[in-house]
Design goal:
The complex is a heterodimer of chains A (about 300) and B (about 900). Chain A has about 300 residues and is of the alpha/beta class. Chain A has helices at about 5-20, 70-75, 115-130, 150-160, 165-175, 190-205, 215-220, 245-265, 280-290, and strands at about 45-50, 55-60, 80-90, 90-95, 135, 145, 180-185, 205-215, 225-230, 235-240, 270-275. Classes of the chains: A alpha/beta (about 300), B alpha/beta (about 900).
């Protein structure tokens, strides 16, 4: 796709995500577990640093600027004091979208591609998180986590245009004891995903799974003589009467999804499913709730 | 009525045997598979049902396709539904065909009907004969029974004639044939009539009845509409349209063409049901009207749908000089009155002043009895005639006393009085016109008395100058060449004082002959010896209404034989000789009426009945429909129809947006309550409500600000400004009206009249284009809105405001007139002595956006920025506003003060 085309696409999805994010208040993810690199969102580190809460007054040093001196405190005595605040830091949430070729498809021109829909949902999530003061990171894409509203554009850009496969995610993109939101169509087979999930479990990552599907994948609305081909066109399967295969196909599809869902349940993770022809509000609300550790567990 | 189905190519029907094969073929061929990309391909593996045969075409689609094939085969075999031949008579058949002008538009239909009768006669073995009514006597019409094939050829090659059928001659011809033993036994006679009666229908019917069974077929068509007459009225040409069959409404277009056939003007007309005639008028400028060569009903290929106009229809310009009794208390007896009455159908006339050298003289000058011409006028007139002018003079008592050089023949002084109380001789009558006179052929009228005239001195060459004379031989109209021009003298007055000539129709006819001569006045004399009554055909009118060069057969028209009706010998068209041209139209001197009631024994029918119906087209159309349905069905089976649904959605969205736009159309600005009585109580400034909210708000705030400054600084204490809706409100109580003119105003006629009245009655209009003169520069000089306004209202001549204009000193002394912008010039009425306004300009036009500079909020804060943000500029702008209001209210009072030093000086003396 040309550069200009990407830009337009990006702008389009960014605005969609912004629309979605507007409806939700700032969200703070609940801190889960304690670990060395996860810092509580609202709690200080009992250490001086950047933050809002007062920590201590210290004597001014030569390198301090005049404006950093607390003149009210200093006026009480002869010495000059600088007001220090407590170091406060936020959680880092990893947002990852599957960009396998299978995701780059839609059944009709009126529908978004699966990967685009996933990108919109994740971007919206990132906006809400950044607004809430959390840090967001796109594994395999981001060089450093984004913090604050100012990073919204960069993170959104990275979600929408960045690509990384599930293999890259598992092998290089993950760090232990983090939060991960993972959007995919999970069509590469339950076995493959089971292995990946176990890797994540071993790292102690808490994951929220988002299953994205196209309506045609779920409903199989095909009729008559049809040749189904892979996206590359390399493989073809000929059906004399496509409608005859409908029931069997649907059973397999549901079973696949159920399998992923079961895996998630066993690991204690959250599982959401979304169809590209449905509205995004409910599933986004669910994701946000899940991240904030609401009623769902 | 029973009907029979006939196939033109029955052999093709054998193809229907192949249908079962086609059926099998359809069943065997599966539809093309659809290729779809599908990501969860893994899930589909091993799901194929190997036993299931591929999807085949559904039964209903197969039947549909079979139907399509059947329809195509049937269509190719040419099925024709023919009405059953009810008359099986074997008596000889005589076809009488009207082939006049009215048959031309429907000739193919008439021909087809006649041909179908011939075909039937061939089947029945009848003897056949044919006669055309428009030219029954011509030698190539053998009345006798000939073979059907020969008659068919004759019919096919025959074309209608551009004149009316002659039923009387046809009857005579048939009678003669009967005498010669043409039809011993009763005939079956079919008359294909054009539905019109030219006066001889009844004799023909009775003649036909003598010969056998008569049935008459008529074609009630739109085409039988014609132009009955063209009347030349001052300012307009009136065209009379007529028709006989008025069962259906008719609407069409009338075209005015010049002699080369280019269209000069067009005019639509409507004939409602049951209305048989209509009057359409062309309002054309004289120059264009004079170029008219024909009037034509568009798309009616008939010779009577064209009306040719000869040169006598053009209206020359005539200048009249010397109206001695113009201001008399008896205008109905004045010469000018008679002349105007006679000229008004022929020419455009105007009064000219020969003493003014700066106006050019028209092609014809009529000189009434003027007395002595001034030397300048005489010279001028002589030069005019010698340069090719055409001068018509009327005698009178003054000419009788004193003649000048501009007369065709020398006159005797005093004139001649006939039939008076002291005279012996009786009043003389007008003699017949001689054949060397341009008036030759006019009816001189027996009862035109001439009581008094001026007399020509008899001399040798007198005879050739005389164009009309009295019964005793004294000249009444004389003429002579002078240089390239010509002088014509009527030896009587143009009023009824001396003769009855000006009251007679001959007078008009004579003028009608005279006026066209002005185009080449000097030529007239050279052909005076030739006969003027014979004319040759220049352009002939074809039956379809087109003008064409006539064939070699040269017809000669003798205009002295009256009445002239168009016939094969005298075709319609443009006739001319060296002097005159004459347009001969198809229906000249012919009366067209509806068909009279026919006797009961004659059957009256319609040509439609006998027409066979071709079914092939309908069948092909059916096959096409099935093809479309089939394609849609294939699309549906392939699952591609949702695309259609999507486009429907796009369409509905577009529709909704359009309707939304319609709803969001800005509503016109609501006029504020305007009560003239309220306005009159106190002085108020007024502004025009333009309908643009921002502009109107600023106008109001601007005038509010100005009113405020006036209140603070002067004794003018205006109330709140008032908004004016130009379309509704009464302007008479307003002293000054501020008009922000940003775009061309769309004034109604009433509004324009109201503004004009307002300006005339002493109102002042301040027009502000509010753009600093930008649009004027862009438009290259004049602001487009102002240009449009100038077309609607009477804008007096304006000038850039002079340095010493009263407006610069009515209150403050100012030299510039800034508003939001500065520097754009302002314009005022250029005449300082404006008639009704005591020198006060009724217009001030500027572009500096004064309202913006004056505008303040309710609590006195300036609303709009001025260019450059100089507070001084706002103050100067207010000073200009105050000066403006003072100028309106106090008029040129300050201008008077200019003369005070002079007045004081005079007082001291």
């Amino acid at each position: 796709m040309s550069k200009a085309g990407t830009k337009i696409k990006y702008a389009n999805e960014f605005s969609q995500a912004a629309e979605l994010a507007k409806r939700f208040d700032a969200l703070l993810s609940e801190a889960r577990g304690l670990s060395a690199n996860v810092i509580h969102g609202a709690h200080g580190r009992r250490k001086r640093g950047s933050g809002e809460t007062f920590w201590e007054f210290r004597h001014a040093r030569l390198e301090d600027t005049a404006s950093s001196i607390d003149w009210r405190r200093s006026a009480k005595g002869d010495a000059l004091f600088v007001r220090e605040t407590e170091w406060e830091a936020a959680n880092t949430i990893y947002l990852w979208r599957d960009s396998s070729p299978l995701m780059n498809w839609c059944s009709s021109k009126g529908l978004p591609r699966k990967q685009d829909r996933a990108a919109v949902l994740l971007t919206a999530l990132a906006m809400v998180l950044l607004r809430g003061g959390e840090r967001c990171m796109i594994p395999g894409v981001s060089q450093k986590p984004g913090t604050g509203i100012g990073a919204t554009r960069r993170i959104a850009h990275e979600i929408i245009t960045g690509t990384s496969t599930a293999e890259q995610l598992v092998t290089s993109g993950l760090r232990a004891q983090t939060h991960l939101v993972l959007a995919s169509d999970f069509l590469e087979g339950p076995q493959l995903w089971k292995e990946r999930f176990s890797t994540m479990q071993k790292l102690g990552i808490s994951v929220i799974l988002l299953h994205i599907s196209d309506p045609a994948e779920e409903e199989f609305p095909y009729f008559g003589h049809t040749v189904f081909s892979s996206l590359s066109g390399a493989e073809q399967i000929d059906f004399g009467r496509a409608q005859l295969a409908k029931n069997n196909y649907q059973q397999r599809f549901m079973a696949n999804r159920q399998h992923i869902s079961d895996l998630a349940k066993r690991a204690g993770w959250l599982f959401f499913k979304h169809r590209t022809d449905h509205i995004m509000g409910p599933v986004f609300h669910g994701l946000a709730q899940g991240l904030s550790g609401g009623k769902l567990s | 009525m029973s009907a029979s189905l006939v196939f033109s190519y029955p052999l093709i029907l054998t193809a229907l045997i192949m249908l079962p094969v086609f059926w099998l073929l359809l069943s065997a061929l599966p539809p093309e598979p659809v290729v779809r990309k599908f990501p969860p391909l893994e899930l589909l593996r091993d799901l194929q049902d190997k036993t299931a045969s591929p999807q085949s075409i559904p039964l209903w689609l197969r039947i549909l396709r079979l139907l399509m094939v059947i329809a195509i085969i049937l269509a190719i075999s040419g099925p024709v539904l023919t009405p059953a031949n009810t008359d099986k008579s074997d008596s000889p058949l005589l076809l009488v065909v009207d082939d006049g002008w009215a048959s031309s538009p429907d000739w193919s239909k008439i021909k087809g009907a006649a041909l179908s009768y011939l075909t039937r006669a061939e089947i029945n073995g009848q003897a056949t004969s044919l006669i055309f009514t428009s030219n029954p006597a011509s030698e190539n019409q053998d009345l006798g029974f000939v073979s059907v094939r020969k008659l068919q050829q004759q019919l096919k090659s025959h074309e209608p004639n551009p004149f009316a059928p002659d039923h009387g001659k046809t009857a005579a011809r048939l009678d003669r044939a009967k005498q010669q033993g043409f039809a011993d036994s009763p005939l079956q006679i079919v008359w294909f009539s054009d539905g019109n009666d030219y006066g001889q229908v009844t004799p023909l019917i009775s003649q036909l009845q003598e010969m056998g069974d008569v049935s008459i077929l008529q074609e009630p068509a739109d085409g039988s509409i014609w132009i009955n007459a063209v009347n030349s009225k001052p300012g307009a040409m009136e065209i009379e349209l007529s028709r006989v069959h008025a069962a259906s409404p008719f609407s069409g277009t009338l075209l005015a063409e010049d002699r080369t056939g280019s269209i000069l003007a067009s005019q639509t007309f409507n004939l409602p049901k049951q209305q048989k005639s209509a009057l359409v008028s062309f309002k054309l400028p004289l120059e264009i009207r004079n170029r008219m060569g024909a009037v034509r009903i568009q798309n009616i290929p008939s010779a009577a749908a064209v009306y040719l106009l000869d040169h006598s229809w053009s209206r020359p310009r005539v200048g009249i000089w010397g109206d001695s009794s113009r201001n008399s208390d008896q205008p109905l007896l004045s010469e000018r009155f008679y002349l105007e009455k006679a000229l008004s159908p022929l020419a455009e006339f105007s009064e000219i002043d020969l003493n003014r050298a700066d106006i050019s003289l028209p092609s014809i000058v009529i000189l009434l009895d003027t007395g002595k011409l001034s030397p300048g006028a005489l010279t001028r007139l002589r030069e005019y005639v010698e340069a090719g002018g055409f001068l018509i003079r009327f005698a009178g008592p003054r000419l009788a006393e004193r003649q000048d050089e501009l007369i065709p023949v020398p006159l005797r002084t005093g004139g001649r009085l006939m039939g008076s109380a002291l005279g012996w001789d009786q009043p003389q009558q007008l003699a017949d016109f001689a054949d060397n006179s341009p008036f030759f052929g006019l009816d001189s009228g027996s009862k035109i008395n001439v009581k008094r005239q001026v007399l020509a001195q008899s001399s040798g060459g007198l005879f050739e100058h005389v164009w009309a004379r009295l019964s005793d031989g004294t000249p009444l109209v004389t003429s002579a060449k002078r240089g390239n021009g010509r002088i014509v003298l009527f030896h009587v007055t143009a009023s009824a004082d001396w003769s009855e000539l000006p009251m007679s129709g001959v007078f008009v006819q004579m003028l009608k002959r005279l006026l066209p001569m002005a185009s080449s006045p000097a030529d007239t004399g050279e052909y005076e010896e030739k006969q003027t009554s014979k004319m040759q055909l220049q352009m002939a009118l074809a039956a379809n209404g087109q003008l064409q060069v006539p064939d070699a057969r040269q017809a000669i028209l003798d205009v002295s034989k009256k009445p002239i009706t168009v016939s094969a010998e005298l075709p319609a068209g443009l006739w001319a000789n060296s002097k005159h041209s004459l347009a001969l139209n198809v229906l000249d001197n012919l009366n067209v009426q509806a068909f009279p009631p026919v006797p009961d024994t004659v059957s009256l029918g319609n040509m439609e009945i006998s027409r066979p119906i071709q079914l092939a087209g309908g069948l092909l159309f059916l096959a096409l429909i099935i093809l479309i349905v089939d394609n849609l069905a294939i699309l549906m089976l392939a699952g591609k129809l949702p695309i259609l649904r999507k486009y429907a959605a796009v369409l509905s969205v577009a529709l909704a947006m359009t309707s939304g736009l319609v709803i969001m159309q800005p509503t016109p600005a609501q006029a504020e309550d305007y009560d003239p009585f309220k306005v009159i109580e106190q002085t108020r400034l007024a502004y025009v409500i333009t309908g643009r909210k921002d502009v109107d708000r600023l106008s109001k705030a601007g005038l509010h600000g100005l009113s405020r400054e006036l209140y603070l600084r002067t004794t003018v204490e205006p109330a709140q400004p008032v908004g004016i809706n130009l379309e509704q409100d009464d302007l008479n109580v307003i002293s000054v009206l501020y008009w922000p003119l940003l775009e061309p105003a769309n004034l109604s006629e009433q509004a324009a009249i109201r503004i004009n009245t307002y300006l005339k009655n002493g109102g002042m209009l301040v027009i502000d284009t509010q753009d600093g003169g930008l649009r004027a520069v862009q438009a290259g000089g004049i602001d487009p809105a102002l240009r449009a306004l100038a077309l609607q209202i009477d804008i007096p001549s304006i000038q850039k405001i002079p340095d010493d204009h009263v407006l610069t000193r009515t209150y403050y002394l100012i030299q510039s007139f800034p508003g939001r912008y500065t520097g754009a010039p302002i314009w005022v009425e250029s005449s300082r002595k404006g008639s009704a306004l005591d020198g006060v300009s009724s217009l001030v036009i500027g572009a500096n956006d004064w309202a913006a500079a004056w505008a303040v909020t309710e609590d006195g804060q300036a609303l709009a920025a001025v260019s450059g943000e100089i507070e001084q500029q706002r103050e100067l702008s207010r000073r200009f506003g105050i000066n403006l209001v003072m100028y309106v209210l106090a008029g040129n009072y300050k201008a008077d003060q200019v003369h005070i030093p002079a007045l004081l000086e005079r007082l001291n003396q």
